[in-house]
Amino acid sequence: MKENRFEIVCIYICPFIFVNEINVLPNFSDYPVRNCVIDKEKNIVIDIETEQQYDFLPTVSRLFVLTKFKDKIKDGKRVGVKGMPSKTFTLDEIEKSKKIIKRLQNGEKFIDGNLISNEDYLKLISKEEIEDNVKQKKLK
Questions:
Q1: Predicted model pTM
Q2: Could you give phi then psi for residue 15, rounded to 5 degrees?
Q3: Where are the beta strands (DSSP E) in the chain?
Q4: End-to-end CA gap in the chain
Q5: Alpha carbon distances (Å) from 138 to 86, 131, 135
Q6: Checking phi first, is residue 13 left (phi over 0); if not, alpha (psi -120 to 50) or beta?
Q7: For residues 65 and 83, is the Cβ–Cβ distance under 8 A?
Q8: What is the DSSP string of 9-31?
Q9: Is the pLDDT of residue 133 over 80?
């Protein structure tokens, strides 16, 4: 049975914290979970709301990260780290995901999410969450 190339999941998009030269930890505490599309063939994730692209790390095993992905986690670079079970997605999120998947299938490139600083990224997604809350209140 063929495994699906794309998956819609909740993941962390965060940098790693370097405790010392040996220990690295994903910064889950400062970065909220995001709804994303994973392209398993290209090892990338696309944030459904921002449509920005990040490298995807399929595991947070320290040894695996240090050997296979060490060049992807340096200098505070954010990466997608699978850390949450799936949840129920809204119809809007599903529609956006379908459009992103179609664009990926067509070979379209997405904006590199690491073109902005971690501080600016957190401001961007905080602003996005505030706007979503306002929309939800207006619907009620």
A1: 0.77
A2: -85, 170
A3: 6-14, 16-18, 24-26, 33-39, 44-47, 52-57, 79-82, 111-112
A4: 44
A5: 27, 11, 5
A6: beta
A7: no
A8: EEEEEEPEEESSSS-EEE-TTTS
A9: no
SS3 139: helix
Gap between the Cα atoms of 82 and 58, Å rounded: 6
CA 122 – CA 12 distance, rounded (Å): 12
Please give the structure tokens belonging to residue 84: 């949450």
User: What CA–CA distance (Å, rounded) separates 79 from 76?
Assistant: 9
Residues in the chain, how many? 140
**80 close to 38: Cβ distance less than 8 angstroms:** yes
SS3 61: coil
State residue 1's pLDDT score: 42
Residue with tokens 């401001």: 123
Distance of CA 37 to the CA centre of its chain: 8
Grade residue 135 by pLDDT with cuts at 50, 70 and 90: low
Euclidean distance between CA atoms 11 and 80, whole angstroms: 6
